[in-house]
From TrEMBL:
HAMAP family: DjlA. It comes from Vibrio aquaticus. Residues 31-284 are cytoplasmic. Residues 1-6 are periplasmic. One of its GO terms (molecular function) is protein-folding chaperone binding. Regulatory DnaK co-chaperone. Direct interaction between DnaK and DjlA is needed for the induction of the wcaABCDE operon, involved in the synthesis of a colanic acid polysaccharide capsule, possibly through activation of the RcsB/RcsC phosphotransfer signaling pathway. The colanic acid capsule may help the bacterium survive conditions outside the host. This is Co-chaperone protein DjlA. Residues 201-210 have a biased composition (Low complexity). Homodimer. Pfam families: DnaJ, TerB. Residues 192-211 are annotated as: Disordered. PROSITE patterns: DNAJ_2. The gene is djlA. Keywords: Cell inner membrane, Cell membrane, Chaperone, Membrane, Transmembrane, Transmembrane helix.
Length: 284
């Protein structure tokens, strides 16, 4: 527990300013302790001056893979399959050389038994500037990695709830995103997406070669986040909201690391594919 700064701040504050000075000193000491704790967690701090955009992006990037490693360790021993899933995520981001090495190191750090999850998530909130879209992307990235094998272990779900809470998402919000990701996984396996599933098949005319089924349409509704009996206006509103939250260029402008641009593009394409299938089925 980091309380050294609070003790000193309170003491000297009281010494020079009485009770009011003690309160002010306690606040300054708390800020010092928090900055010290974050430094020990391996992340840059901007105590006295805010971190640059590049520093925030680097912190967000490292934290994403570190937390990914922590989620992988939730079931106990990290398996070869889970390490391969992390490598697949790195491939999706086109990571090579030092970038890939940095991601691998962060993943290994996340597997340590004393990994400071709460502290790292606090730093993610800071590096994201409190922006909902970026924190949502971070959470969905962890869900996507955990669900890459098609299932969520109870221990993984428990850790995901801690991550959601640390990013100021409610339990209900997490469960909704878990349902959407489960539907997205099946949707990809059915031929509509292809980045982690069975691949997308097209005819020479660019039309879907694989016929849509009732199950695939049901998954498309869940992916968009609407009921199957939703009218066109409701579907369009949900689609536009999701696209606005996941638009790659908007995420980049808000501070998304450039290495994650491909993943953001894949997500927006996934949403587009689901919407297109619903439009075709409903005839609007």
């Amino acid at each position: 527990m980091h309380i050294f700064g609070k003790i000193l701040g309170t003491f000297f504050g009281f010494l020079f300013g009485g009770p009011f000075g003690a309160a002010f000193g306690l606040f300054i000491g708390h800020q010092f302790d928090k900055a010290r704790r974050l430094r020990q967690a391996g992340f840059n701090t901007g105590f006295g001056s805010g971190p640059s955009q590049a520093q925030r992006q680097e912190e967000f990037f490292k934290a994403a893979f570190a937390v990914m490693g922590h989620v992988a360790k939730a079931k106990g021993q990290v398996t070869r399959e889970e390490i391969q899933l992390a490598s697949t995520m790195m491939d999706r981001m086109n990571l090579h050389g030092e970038q890939r090495k940095s991601a691998q190191n962060a993943f290994r750090e996340g597997k340590e038994s004393d990994f400071p999850l709460e502290t790292v998530l606090e730093r993610v909130r800071i590096s994201a500037g409190g922006r909902f879209d970026l924190m949502q992307f971070f959470l969905e990235l962890q869900i996507s990695a955990a669900f890459a094998d098609g299932d969520i272990h109870p221990s993984e779900r428990s850790v995901l709830h801690k991550i959601a809470q640390g990013l100021n998402f409610s339990a209900d919000q997490l469960e909704q995103r878990l349902r959407m990701q489960e539907a997205a996984f099946r949707f990809q396996q059915g031929g509509f997406g292809g980045q982690t599933g069975g691949g997308r098949s097209h005819s020479s005319g660019g039309q879907w070669q694989q016929a849509s089924t009732a199950d695939q349409l049901s998954d498309a509704y869940k992916l968009i986040g609407v009921d199957s009996n939703a009218d066109a206006k409701t579907v369009k509103r949900a689609y536009r909201k999701l696209m606005n939250e996941h638009h790659p260029d908007k995420l980049m402008a808000k501070g998304l690391p450039p290495e994650m641009m491909n993943v953001a593009k894949e997500k927006s394409q996934e949403i587009q594919n689901a919407y297109d299938l619903i439009k075709k089925a409903k005839g609007f």
